[in-house]
Amino acid sequence: MIVRVSGEGQFRLPDEDAGRLNELDNRAVGAVEQGDEIGFRELWSQMLELVASDGNALDDDELVESDVILPPRDVTFQEAKGEFTGDGLIPD
Amino acid sequence: MPGLGGRMSTVIKAKISRMLDRTEDPGETLDYGYQKQLEMLQNVKKGIADVVTAKKRLQMQSGKLEQQVVKLDTQARQALAQGNDPLARTALERKTLAQTELQTLDVQVKELEGQQEQLTANEQKLRQKIEQFRTKKEVIKAQYSAAEAQVRIGEAASGVGEEMADLGLAMQRAEDKTEQMRARAGAVEELEAAGTFDDITQLGGGEDDIDRQLKELTSGAQVDDELAKMKAELGQGGGDSPALEQGKENA
Predict the structure, then answer these.
(1) CB-based contact B128 A60, cutoff 8 Å
(2) CA angle B103, B109, B111 (to 5 degrees)
(3) Is the ipTM of this structure higher than 0.85?
(4) What predicted TM-score, i.e. pTM, was given to this entire model?
(5) Helix or strand or coil: residue A22?
(6) Residues A25, B3: C-beta atoms closer than 8 Å
(7) Facing residue for B4 by CB, picked from A25, A60, A62
(8) Nearest by CB to A64, which of B118, B159, B165?
């Protein structure tokens, strides 16, 4: 599984991590919907930690698409409201 | 995977497929894609230049405020030496405000520096990816049938496209930040234009509107402390009291 952390590049993670990452993501969406910033921050740092502990950075000459794109590390709660509820950080 | 990754990559994929749908011939699509990538790289360079310009402007403003702080401090001392406490207080209130603005500006300059470094690093990475794409493009054109080439173009272009979209996002965020700072810098300039940091010797006798606003903005306790400290210093310093430099402006 290829995961991109926006602004930091792509990482290869074992496929088994997909379930864990998705679970964290779903809980983060829940936290954002309830306006729970502290809860969101905690879940968000867990997601980043998972990528840091299990992921290996891709070489620059690998031209592949990511399976998952995470927002920038310093995503604000305001941005998260758009990102974690469906609009996406990149407007069409 | 549904959720986060799905949401964002769908948007990016849609953008890339629109780009690739422009032409029927894979070779043309490849050249077109490569052209688009080079254009994007140019935009990135312009964006970085904008960040540098914004940073320089803030640094200039910071330099001006530093001069005002020194000037207002000197004037407070001169006013005190002449026994003019109210004028000294006004100068110190203005100095406090200028110092607060100065600290905010310095934080902003540091933030912009961080963004500039990250954008520059990402630009290097994108440049390498585009170079890889150029190499792959020639291989695909030379070696593959049209149908096969379509598939491989899609793969390679998606990889580069994602990198471009990501850098585009970083640029957008940097621009938003710069815009916020510009607004704040504009507000400081308005204060300057209104005479907030001006030479206090230009003031008339009475309290003006700026002074009333300043009293609300600056911490009275901080000004009191500084006034007391200055008095103590002057008390030890002996009796020579330089005259106020009437009307001297060093803009």
Answers:
(1) yes
(2) 105
(3) no
(4) 0.61
(5) helix
(6) yes
(7) A25
(8) B159
